[in-house]
What does this fold into?
Amino acid sequence: MIATLDPLVADYDQLLPVIAADGLAGFEELRAAAIRRYRESGIPTTRDEEFKYTPLHALTETKYRFGYGANLTREDVSGLLVGDIDAITVVFVNGQFAPDLSSTDSLPNGAYIGSFSDARGFEDEIHANLGTIAHFNNRLGSTNDLRFVDLNSAYLGDGTLIFLEKNVTVERPIHVVHVVSASDVAALSFPRNLIVLGENAEAKVIESYVTHAGNGVTIPVTEIRLAAAARLEHNKVQNESLASTHIANIFVDQAKTSVYTSNNINFGGGVARTDINAYVGGEYCETWLNSANVATGSQIIDNHTRIDHALPNCQSFEVYKSILKDNGVGVFNGKIFVYEDAQKTDAKQTNQAILLSPTATMNTKPQLEIFADDVKCTHGATIGQLRDDALFYLRARGIPLAEAQGLLVYAFAAEVLEKITIDEVREKLEAALFEKLGS
It folds into this structure.
């Protein structure tokens, strides 16, 4: 049994009544089982294989305060990276729903977008799906680490529900904003997001994580269920303060002919990790995982992906790119599992990194476990520097060194950023990329 000195759960028993009152009833057993499993394992160390390159000692050395009670204005939120785009907006501050900052009007019939606590008439959808997607039950091969999923479930209170019935399309982007706002003590928050798209439904979602003040530890879990022929563009943007720790888990369950596109962008966080786990449980699905990551100073940005191809005739494509400067560290671990029944699978995985300084580091580990014999599966990893001849070409035309480097780096990242079809979001991220690399 792990000692209760673990600062992430030190005040858990006192906080539990507050957490339970903030959300829906009926999750008592889920919380109890989750906190029991977490306390049996505790915070991972670099001796744990899944966290070999991602030290989390800061989690044991920091005092935290559960972040409820912060008050922000619309002006506070609008200036935070992609906070002021034209979108249906749901805002949480330190994990607590902020209705005054949210705007969820003009929804089409058959759609709910908002908090769990306001989801009257949709409680059955929440109970039927929450906690049923974020698992590795009956999966082949090795699994990723679930202890931070358990920690999030232990603190399960309010959260975001995006629910679309059959044939519903939401034309406007849906923006779920999670804001950290702390003063003298780091804020501790556990955002929970649930996205359920019915048959032939379609949406574009931005899930953004930003800092208004101070720093914190953010441990979100997002569960996504796509029915047959559903289509989701899911843009996760993480730009929290460099003193923050961000550990996210995303789970996707795809039915036949569904299309899931993930654009995972990481610019912030002192330590930032995102695990994306896609279970391809129907034929003729498409799964696209794209990511652009920038680590400067002493940032550590860690990405783990897992795609389970359980049925035949499906395609998956991964393009993960990292730009590392100063003492920045990048980590990529990509797992693809092709089950015995998943014949005609086409899976391609690419991981590339550019090192802008001799002290930057990239750790990459592609993994394929194939149990079928009629498949096309490839993976490739490249790590290098900017080409001298390309820099010379630009500088010979009067472009200063810093600007020339910025142009080449942008061209490197553009393959990922161009996958974002929401123009406002893409343009803001392009500007943020140039600003970060110029700092």
User: Anything to note?
Assistant: Residues 12-386 form one domain. The chain is about 20% helix and 40% strand.
